[in-house]
Design goal:
This protein has helices at about 10-15, 185-195; strands at about 1-5, 60, 70-75, 80-85, 90-95, 100-105, 110-115, 125-130, 140-145, 160, 165-170, 175-185, 205-215. By secondary structure, the protein is mostly beta strands. It has one domain: Mutm (Fpg) Protein, Chain: A, domain 2, CATH 2.60.270.
């Protein structure tokens, strides 16, 4: 089921700016978490995701040329989740919190993983974010399972394409539920979110906030 509605810029802007530190100050580092998450897993050496701009690993990838995404990932699942861009180890995003992300998107897009556990085999939702050279930015969702279990419903993927100012949602058992909000393009905001203050490479990157409402159901 797709949900489509328009939002007013001040509301969307508030969501994006929420990740900034007071007075624009950027603090390095992240906290290590040793307590058990809502999923029952002990996080151990997993770091809590940075909650202020600019985005940092595992939610930052500045390759991919002049096309890419910047924005905020919000956890509205009701439990802790672990998120990362492809080829990175996940960080912990507690329920109700948000973290900035920034990623260049090669020809076929870039994968963003979300799961209820940090250690392999992980299972949950794999997003593909793509800002193509021609056409609209898009967010696709797939179920994935690194172990022997199976995900409920289709894993073939479904997605949304976004004009500036759009809010698009997807809610399916096999891919989970998410809401994507595309904010107006803004070169200064893109540089702040990536940390590339002296580079015009990111000026045209799409600004998309992604709220994860529910992960794909896997067993």
């Amino acid at each position: 089921m797709f949900v489509r509605m328009l939002i007013f810029w001040p509301v969307a802007a508030g969501l994006l700016v929420a990740g900034c530190g007071a007075g624009g100050t950027v603090v390095e580092g992240s906290a290590s978490v040793d307590s058990a998450s809502a999923s029952g897993e002990v996080a151990g050496s997993a770091n809590t995701c940075i909650t202020w701009a600019p985005a940092t690993r595992p939610l930052s990838y500045l390759g991919g040329g002049t096309d890419g995404f910047v924005g905020t990932i919000v956890n509205a699942t009701g439990g802790d989740i672990y998120i990362n861009l492809q080829d990175e180890s996940p960080c912990l995003l507690p329920n109700g919190q948000s973290a900035p992300y920034a990623s260049g998107t090669p020809l076929n897009g870039r994968s963003l993983y979300a799961s209820a556990t940090a250690s392999s085999p992980r299972a949950g939702t794999r997003f593909i974010i793509n800002d193509p050279y021609v056409g609209l930015p898009s967010v696709q969702a797939f179920s994935y399972d690194e172990g022997a279990g199976s995900c409920v419903g289709s894993s073939s993927g479904a997605g949304v394409k976004l004009y500036e100012g759009d809010t698009e949602g997807l809610d399916e058992t096999g891919t989970g539920s998410f809401t994507a909000v595309r904010l107006p393009d803004d070169a200064e905001a893109a540089r702040q979110w990536t940390g590339a203050s002296d580079s015009s490479q990111v000026d045209d990157w799409a600004r998309v906030d992604i709220t994860i409402n529910r992960l794909a159901r896997c067993s």
